[in-house]
Amino acid sequence: MRQLTPSATGVIQAAAHQMRKNGIEVFNFGTGDPILPNHPVILEFAERAIVEKMSPYAPFAGMTELRQAAADWMNRRYGSQFGIKETVVSCGGKFGIYAALQILLAQGEEVLVPAPYWVSYPEMVRLANGQPIILSAEETTNWKITPSEMLSRITPKTRVLLLNNACNPTGVLYTRQEISEILNVAKEANLMVISDEVYSEIVFDNAEFVSCSSFPEHRSRVIVIESCSKNFAMAGWRVGFAFGPAEVITNIIALQSQSTSGTSLISQQAALGALRHADEVSSYVRQAMDRRRKLFFQTYNQLFQTRIQPILSTLYYFAPIGKDSMKECEKILTEAHVALVPGIGFGVEGYVRFAFSEEEDLIEKGLKALQKFKRGLPYC
Ligand code: GLU
What we know:
By secondary structure, this protein is α/β, with parallel strands linked by helices. It contains twelve helices and twelve strands. Helix 2 runs antiparallel to helix 9 and helix 10 packs parallel to helix 12. Glutamic acid (GLU) binds next to helix 1.
């Protein structure tokens, strides 16, 4: 039997769920999931699909109207030129990344993965028989990788760069100049780039989000992963997208036809509702998450000695914890009933990730529970 490592966010989420089932109040800073009522247009489209008894298999590539609406959404925001052939609907952005790696990698090929990385990347690379090559970014350089670091790790076996912008867990946004330099290195080394951009609409204080799809000269090597989970607060509906060269997308569709058969038709209708009103729905989510972000950072600065700056994107704050992050998170969960994700899950020991996507009162109560639990930790 193969031994797989489960997702670190999934492990914490399951432990927190179990505690809640046992009647314990758990303060969830674990999984990043914008806990919000669905925007009415999402429900309207989903309800219509249910009333009209739409339950056949969906096309493996996703509904044509949804692929077109998703491509239009990208093209309108970034000036890209995706058509239906360059667009596939997947079971969340997660399956899009998994599928792209399966399609691109041959046995033993290497994937550059900047750390901190989203918890699932290295295992997904291994599942595709590839080799993750971790590029470590530091807090002192704002957690960003540089072209020179990339160059120093490229070998004849390197095939893909797996970039995450905005970055989960640090919330860091790459600038246009930085992305351009990274893409130029990828071009020189003939790498494909999978750009995970699932927080593209969760950007605050008018900060600029730069998509890898806004560089036409790199069109042939870029696969962009998008999702409804965060941008439209639809995590449980499981709708994401991959955009890229038609030959890659065709193979992802074939992979879906041999595995998931695509995502639920009702979910796809719900996503169509969100995309038809994309600006309205994403602004509804952004405003709610901005309120939580402000509350989180203000409360944190009031309660703890360390002064921290609000992040500009995503739903996270990556905080130093100074010791074995897994043990510390287990202890904090069992004793303070506060769910955090250990930094080691993101490839960086000595840190923890807070998600501030829960309801407001839980954010305040959770931080207070943490302060009461231990004043001696570096973040306290
Ligand atoms: N992206 C979310 C997080 O990092 C969801 C986790 C998941 O799907 O594993 O918390």
